[in-house]
Request: fold
Amino acid sequence: MALPQVETLPPNSLSRILIGNKFALAAFLLPLAVRAIPEIIVGPYPIGYDAITFYVPATIDWAAGRVSLMNMLGTAPLMYMISVPAYLFGADPVWIFKILGPVLYGCMASALYRFTRLRLEWSQRKSLAGIAVITVYFITLRIGWDLYRTMLGLVFVLLSLSLPHESRGNRETVLRSVLVTLAVLSDQFIGAIALSLTIARALLPCAKWNRQAVTRTGEVFGPGAIAFALILYTGIALPNVGLVSEHPPLPSTETITWNIGFLAYAYVLLAPLIFIGWRRTPNSDLRNWSIVCLIGAVSVLFPFLGPNAPSGRWVLLLDLPFCTYSTAGLSVLMTPRGLPQTLIGRIRKLAIPSLSLFLIILGSLYILVPAQQAMTYYTLFPTLMPTSMIQNSIPSSDMPSLRYLLNQAALDMQDSSVLITHEGIYGWAREYLPGYSDRVV
Reply:
């Protein structure tokens, strides 16, 4: 009796490729889908304060040639090199960023998945579990809410860190240099992290005066450092901007409470797992990343002078390394050494599902609940954390009304009229009053 023939997929077929990379694909699609939920809820309107207040009007101005070269460089221009061409080809600027938000969120998570697979040597399942934790954690969601340039820069940083420490040839050196430079051109904070990690990687070889290592470090570091210097120079050349700011000799109680309090607020839920994972993850890049951000987070407490940068942003940038450590800590709890198998079974059966459910509920409340009914925990630091994802400069419930008011204003405006707006309404007026865009201030 002849056995039935089993059909096999061609080795290069799309289906076979997708099946073979299903974990990597899930690491992109899961975050993309989660980040798309608030975009779907608000309909045709944007989410994210920066998206409507800065990105949309800046895209319109760049496309119209109203921005000087100095201002272009000072804003870390890579994001607008994506949005402006799309706008010139006819895409609506709001929809450009409604699509970019979920895509960048997915790309950031996918780049982290690649890093954990190649550099931490995690299994596919463990890496995907880490992506699931990061995707629903509320600090990551806050980054995804409107820090588009940050997400873009993190993609390039993570891809550069996924390359081996030792460059094996010119091609790899050039690739690393390009990725670091793109990270710098995406965002100044990410640029500082990328350059710091590049220097930290090169310290030991350069200390031994390995001529080849010194040369390759210069090739990787040089272009990004030049771009970073240009961005800083053009930034400080603008009015009321500088590299440093004056600090009092001793920080006030309010300053300490606000800044250290936000650091605790952001990661206290994961603190035990972060501590366990830090000890069990001997990766110098993650540790150096964490150290750079921790120094930035407490720099506001430095006496007399300190960097002119918001410490809250550095706290947010601890998210990816800290969530990675928490995943490593979670993995340790699932397979603790020296404990009875019955206790291990209880941990797996109760603690892990409970923590997972807790993080999912916490993230869901941040994504789904309107700003007016936000969970109390999300209202503690309103200047650093939006209370809900379904808002931009105004709550989602007010978006249709504001659109209607702008339409009414357009009917009443004369040829000589100028519309003076609040910062939170400026981007709305530029987007929804296209015929009067150049007369909105």
